[in-house]
Sequence to fold (225 residues):
Amino acid sequence: NAGVTQTPKFQVLKTGQSMTLQCAQDMNHEYMSWYRQDPGMGLRLIHYSVGAGITDQGEVPNGYNVSRSTTEDFPLRLLSAAPSQTSVYFCASSSAGTSGDTQYFGPGTRLTVL
Amino acid sequence: AQRVTQPEKLLSVFKGAPVELKCNYSYSGSPELFWYVQYSRQRLQLLLRHISRESIKGFTADLNKGETSFHLKKPFAQEEDSAMYYCALSYGSSNTGKLIFGQGTTLQVKP
Fold:
């Protein structure tokens, strides 16, 4: 079991460029989510999904798109990168069941937007 | 609105000293609270959750609804406890996996 994997590990973009952060899990988890981690602000939820074909916004969704065509994959798209999107991005997954189930996190993608 | 506050950015203690990492929350519903830990060069992982009432690596945390707190405690700190600790609150309808995180506290255990 690889758990939750994320690619790339590091990325540098110029303002206005677009890119997709990849996230995959092999635990057959229904729930997947994206967080960004900024100094002094903890982790903030960007988007989440409760199953294939179902996504919804979190706290800070602006500038990001997601889709969930399969249970395993949950890519995060930056449409037009801005310096304010410089952050570390974490993908997480958890199984269906009672609320508050353990979330498993990926290793993170460190993104710099110049 | 829901909120999680960790008032200390950095907590520095000597090995063998007691540790208390503070967490306060604001939530109108019935809270489900967690502590996550991130060791150096490792991914974020669950340390413990209040519904389990468990002790992991010597750490415990008790939910105090009156004081809206969920402080993390350990009687004798070890150097390997040095890490970033996040308090988190599960919110929204059940089964969505949404978490609100505090700002995080770096625990530094000195030899």
